[in-house]
Amino acid sequence: MEFTLDATSNNARACTIKTAHSTIKTPVFMPVGTVGSVKSLDMEDVVDILGAEIILANTYHMYLRPGDKTVAKMGKLHKFTTFPKSFLTDSGGFQAFSLSSMTKHKENGIEFRSHIDGSKHLFTPSKVIDIQNNLGSDIMMILDDLVALPATQERIALSIDRTTKWAQESIGYHKENQAKGIGTEQNIFAIIQGGTDKAFRTKSATELCALTDYDGFAIGGLSVGEANQDMYDTVEHTVQYMPKDKPRYLMGVGTPEDLIENVERGIDMFDCVMPTRNARNGTLFTSFGKINIKGAKFKEDELPIDPECTCLTCKRYTRSYMNHLIRAKELSYFRLATIHNLHYYLNLMREVREAILEDRFAEFKTEFYKKRS
């Protein structure tokens, strides 16, 4: 991985990340393709219409179905899915934690039962790297010990200790593999934990960022029910302990407002299911806020979803037509709505980058909120 810090505007950063498969300009929003597919879209939509340079796939889901060994036999993620750009794979620890009622966090990993057939599995630090080596992702996330909030001080402390221990095991194993010619084009990120407690975040960030062989660092365990301001304060506190010469990734966040606030605090990379999930449920993002396209007021509305938007959907279709499609449960609605929401997110980050390069991010943020008021 090559990383360049191109410009700053106060704490907001514009960077360039080069992997074996693409050049990623940050700040960047990464569409979520959990099982190797962005829901309701094909890869022509993702590459040619949206212009995404990086998307996510999930280790837990790809491990269970179709199986990481199957993906490896089919040419790994890039060939299997035909997405030619970069993949980031999450470790699967969050899914093992959230989708299984039988999860057990142990000293050596996370034991869980498949949400598909109930079979028992164990994710260890080395196991999730083996899976991600088979998947062939450009960026691999390590296994971390995530806890739900609120949690006791003792449980959060244990989470940090395990996360650091597993991070040490992971980077050592990854480097051993690379010496054997395995995963030589793959990069590895560690995940900072600690809830919203600043002392815990300091401890976790300090311990993990001391592991200098990591290619980047993520902030995990946020956007799990805490107040927005608590999230922002935690991010602002944590980034001061993160290297300036490596990517900073805030996992699972969030709304357009969350992206703007956390770019302001120095975050480079984001992902969230919100734009795709909300699209399917009728909530569409616009420059002036959200709308629910199911609303009766849109039945005879001749405007596009967002008059300022240049996406395929807005250039061709009206709110009236989109209202009709979702009410009729027409399958084409899901594609058109998803294209619009993802275009909005990706374009927002492109505009943010331009503002940072021109050192006018503060003005951009003011205008962003002014339109919403």
UniProtKB/TrEMBL annotation:
Cofactor binding description: Binds 1 zinc ion per subunit.
Pathway: tRNA modification; tRNA-queuosine biosynthesis
The keyword Protein biosynthesis is assigned to this record: no
Reaction(s) catalysed (UniProt annotation): 7-aminomethyl-7-carbaguanine + guanosine(34) in tRNA = 7-aminomethyl-7-carbaguanosine(34) in tRNA + guanine
Any one of the GO BP annotations: tRNA queuosine(34) biosynthetic process
One of the record's GO molecular function terms: tRNA-guanosine(34) queuine transglycosylase activity
Keywords, in A-Z order: Glycosyltransferase, Metal-binding, Queuosine biosynthesis, Transferase, tRNA processing, Zinc
InterPro entries named among the record's database cross-references: TGT, TGT-like_sf, tRNA_ribo_trans-like
The protein's required cofactors: Zn(2+)
Record domain tRNA-guanine(15) transglycosylase-like: where: 11-372
Gene3D superfamilies hit by this protein: Queuine tRNA-ribosyltransferase-like
A matching Pfam family: TGT
This enzyme's EC code(s): 2.4.2.29
Binding residue positions for Zn(2+): 309, 311, 314, 340
Chain positions covered by the region annotation RNA binding: 252-258, 276-280
GO CC terms in record: cytosol
Ligand binding (substrate): 90-94, 144, 193, 221
Free-text function comment from the UniProt entry: Catalyzes the base-exchange of a guanine (G) residue with the queuine precursor 7-aminomethyl-7-deazaguanine (PreQ1) at position 34 (anticodon wobble position) in tRNAs with GU(N) anticodons (tRNA-Asp, -Asn, -His and -Tyr). Catalysis occurs through a double-displacement mechanism. The nucleophile active site attacks the C1' of nucleotide 34 to detach the guanine base from the RNA, forming a covalent enzyme-RNA intermediate. The proton acceptor active site deprotonates the incoming PreQ1, allowing a nucleophilic attack on the C1' of the ribose to form the product.
Entry-linked HAMAP family: Q_tRNA_Tgt
Quaternary structure, from the entry: Homodimer. Within each dimer, one monomer is responsible for RNA recognition and catalysis, while the other monomer binds to the replacement base PreQ1.
Assigned protein family: Belongs to the queuine tRNA-ribosyltransferase family.
Protein name: Queuine tRNA-ribosyltransferase
